[in-house]
Amino acid sequence: MNQIIETILNHRSIRSFEKDRPLSQEQIQTIVESAQAASTSSFIQAYSIIGITDKEKKTRIAELANNQSYVENNGHFFVFCADLHRHALIGKMEGKEVEPSIESTEKFMVALIDAALAAQNAVIAAESMGLGICYIGGIRNNLEEVVKLLKTPDRVIPLFGIAIGYPAKISGQKPRLPFNHVYHENVYEENEQKYIDELQEYNEIIQKYYEERTAGKRNDTWTSQMGTMLEKQSRMYMKEFIEGKKMNLR
Ligand SMILES: Cc1cc2nc3c(=O)[nH]c(=O)nc-3n(C[C@H](O)[C@H](O)[C@H](O)COP(=O)(O)O)c2cc1C
């Protein structure tokens, strides 16, 4: 165990931040530089990060993300974007026809993976400074509006926000799936009964977690939560939206 692993294992999303306590420029810079230090597929660096300092924009993003109060009230709000815009420019600079490659599903995946790796580095950096974080996928409720607000060009897809700040309320840690359930060796072990047994075991842990956290008010298991969520289709406009931004999924 070392301090970095302790920080990682201590993660929990923070949804309440100290009021009027913004991050310093130095903290913002360290967080972004930590994001940039992440590995990046073929050195492509296919992401951008937009910090939201404009109060009205922040309020509007909070509205678009289902009125989550911590999107508005935090120390700093970052939006992580998949970004192949600069690569289209590189095509022009270098006189190369790059569009067919840029407009592929593979490059879209590369940009998503790059942005996620950068984001999680930013999160670890922030948490190591004693700050709290919450990812905000809610910005994908209405990406057309977010794009207008942030003026992102074609080939740039805002993926999620991260609210960062000084924690005002520390939440409990959510237990994860059992190690054996997510870790396989050499081959994917596909054993339905074993999977069901492990999920039931995990359900008991999660049920206890919710019971304790809500003084017995919430009676929920992980599989029931997932079943209810996955029964509904969400944000089904996404494929069309992405293709409309010239990230064609060929
Ligand atoms: C990409 C992404 C999007 C998320 N979006 C939201 C969100 O919009 N609102 C929210 O309250 N939490 C959001 N979360 C946080 C998850 O709900 C949280 O990580 C999960 O429940 C596990 O809890 P923990 O982070 O406290 O361990 C998001 C997490 C990720 C990775």
Structure overview:
The chain is α+β, with helices and mostly antiparallel strands. It has two domains: 182 residues, 3-Layer(aba) Sandwich (NADH Oxidase), CATH 3.40.109.10; 41 residues, no CATH class. The chain has a four-stranded antiparallel beta sheet, with helices on both faces. It is globular. GO terms for molecular function: FMN reductase (NADPH) activity.
Task: Supply database-style keywords.
250 residues; alpha+beta; NADH Oxidase; 2 domains; four-stranded antiparallel β-sheet; 4 strands; 12% strand; binds flavin mononucleotide
**Residue share in helix:** 40-55%
Tell me the overall shape. Answer: globular
SSE sequence, one letter per element = HHEHHEHHHEHEHHHH
| CATH architecture identity of the largest domain | 3-Layer(aba) Sandwich
Distance between the termini: 44 Å
Question: Tell me about the biggest sheet?
Answer: 4 strands, antiparallel
Heterogens: flavin mononucleotide
Treating each run of at least 4 consecutive H or I residues as one helix, how many helices?
12
How many domain units? 2
The count of β-strands is: 4
Mean pLDDT: 97
Low-confidence stretches: none
Query: What strand order characterises the main sheet?
Result: 1-2-4-3
Q: Give Rg in angstroms.
A: 20 Å
**What's the name of the CATH homologous superfamily of the largest domain?**
NADH Oxidase
Question: Can you describe this structure in just a few lines?
Answer:
With 250 residues, the protein is α+β, with helices and mostly antiparallel strands.
